[in-house]
Amino acid sequence: MSAHMHSDGNQPVKFPDQLDWLSAPPPIVAGSARPRARSTDPSTSHEAAEAMVSSGAIGRQAAEVLAAVQRWPGLTSLELGARMDIDRWAVARRLPELEPAHVRRGEPRVINGRRHVTWWPR
């Protein structure tokens, strides 16, 4: 982790995209240990899910999503995905895993005639 000094030169600052757990999955919180593939999914889905976990991709995605919520608080998974230039559904899968330790749900907002949950940092 690289540290940067405050403008007063006293305390190191850790930026959101430089979280200690950047290359590891975020802490498991209640409800986030659900299966990554359904029991009815083909074996290739289960293999892909295991590869996402074992490679650390899940943790990296979670760290990127958390940094995005911190940078753009109050957006939906649809809006965050667009700003991050990644699939909206990847964002939507990571957000509940970051809740409640790192993010919280806000009031829904209507986009294209549908209600979408907004997300805020803790």
Total strands: the figure is 7
Instruction: Give the helix/strand class.
Output: alpha+beta
Number of helices: 4
Distance between the termini: 22 Å
Largest sheet: 3 strands, antiparallel
Task: Report the principal-axis shape.
Answer: globular
Instruction: Record the strand order, biggest sheet.
Output: 3-7-4
Which spans of ≥5 residues are poorly predicted at pLDDT below 50? 1-7, 12-26, 28-32
Mean pLDDT: 79
Strand content: 15-25%
Helical percentage: 25-40%
Order of helices and strands: EEHHEHHEEEE
Round the Cα radius of gyration to an integer and report it.
16 Å
Characteristic key phrases:
122 residues, alpha+beta, 3-stranded antiparallel beta sheet, two-stranded antiparallel sheet, 7 strands
